[in-house]
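Q: What residues go here?
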């Protein structure tokens, strides 16, 4: 009965996943944007997702929070026309929205602390307004079907067939690999069910388990996932994980998370609730004259990337928190 329930739940989520996908045309536009353009580029987006990973680890948030935040961010960026200077406010809004849904209330970080630790230059009021804009545009209520949704279901299905596979098929490792993939915008084009199955197959091959590969095959048939589509994303996943496992990339360590900041940043942090005098987001913050999917130029630029300030997230021996080699910033091409 448990296996039957899981397969039924799998089918329901598979039917609904299409409603939580970013617009592919919007993602393609981001990928084609050059660095000198006034719009968000793929490199800019990927760097901000790495910042979200850092903040997720810093505040002790779950993988579910991170994955949901990235899903909201990509869906919003694929829909709206915003400038790079607005990205920090949008991404932090998505993280805060995701945390309020997935985390216990007692574990939520106060909004002003979230802004200060994130080294952002906008106010609590700005963040609150942006959250309302994101929620309205995405019609966000309380959930989204993501690759993590399927990854958990696949893992449960595998365990339901044999309890002695619990130690072999590590959910923690699968989650770490998923987070690594989400740091590249190209994986946002994959269907969540297909991306999760690609990760599962990759891990089954890594541990050389024919039984688990057989289970993955039956899941593919149950969801009617085409061989060509699964093969395409499996190859991209394998390449991505190979890049991250490269000795050229810095390796993780297990020391306590440290936040290394410059003297100037430290002075700003010690100034409690100190926020630069910047214009707030106006109530009518959407410039309809430009396009229905444009964002008013109201925020100030100059936020520093967290990739140079946050240390290891101590997530285990899977991937480093930040990948300083240039190789990881290259996007996978079809």
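A:
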């Amino acid at each position: 009965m448990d296996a039957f329930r899981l397969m039924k739940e799998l089918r329901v989520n598979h039917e609904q996943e299409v409603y939580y996908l970013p617009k592919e045309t919007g993602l393609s536009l981001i990928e084609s944007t050059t660095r000198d353009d006034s719009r968000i580029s793929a490199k800019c987006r990927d760097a901000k997702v790495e910042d979200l990973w850092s903040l997720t680890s810093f505040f002790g948030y779950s993988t579910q929070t991170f994955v949901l935040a990235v899903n909201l961010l990509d869906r919003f960026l694929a829909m709206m026309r915003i400038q790079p200077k607005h990205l920090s406010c949008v991404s932090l809004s998505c993280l805060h929205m995701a945390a309020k849904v997935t985390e216990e209330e007692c574990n939520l970080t106060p909004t002003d602390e979230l802004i200060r630790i994130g080294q952002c230059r906008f106010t609590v009021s700005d963040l609150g307004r942006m959250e309302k804009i994101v929620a309205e545009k995405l019609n966000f209520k309380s959930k989204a079907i993501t690759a993590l949704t399927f990854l958990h279901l696949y893992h449960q299905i595998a365990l339901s067939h044999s309890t002695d596979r619990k130690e072999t098929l590590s959910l923690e490792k699968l989650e770490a690999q998923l987070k690594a993939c989400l740091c590249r915008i190209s994986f946002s084009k994959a269907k969540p069910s297909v991306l999760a199955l690609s990760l599962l197959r990759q891990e089954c091959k890594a541990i050389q388990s024919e039984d688990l590969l057989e289970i993955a095959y039956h899941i593919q048939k149950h969801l009617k996932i085409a061989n060509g589509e699964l093969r395409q994303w499996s190859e991209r996943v394998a390449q991505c994980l190979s890049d991250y496992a490269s000795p050229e990339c810095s390796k993780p360590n297990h020391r306590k998370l440290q936040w290394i900041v410059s003297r100037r940043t430290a002075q700003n942090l010690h100034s409690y609730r100190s926020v630069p005098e910047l214009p707030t987001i106006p109530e009518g913050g959407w410039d309809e004259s430009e396009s229905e999917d444009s964002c008013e130029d109201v925020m100030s630029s100059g936020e520093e990337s967290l990739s140079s300030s946050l240390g290891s997230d101590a997530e285990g021996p899977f991937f480093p928190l930040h990948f300083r080699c240039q190789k990881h910033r290259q996007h996978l091409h079809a």
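A: Context that may help when evaluating the design: Residues 38 and 171 are 40 Å apart (CA to CA). Confidence is low (pLDDT under 50) at residues 250-257, 284-294, 296-334.
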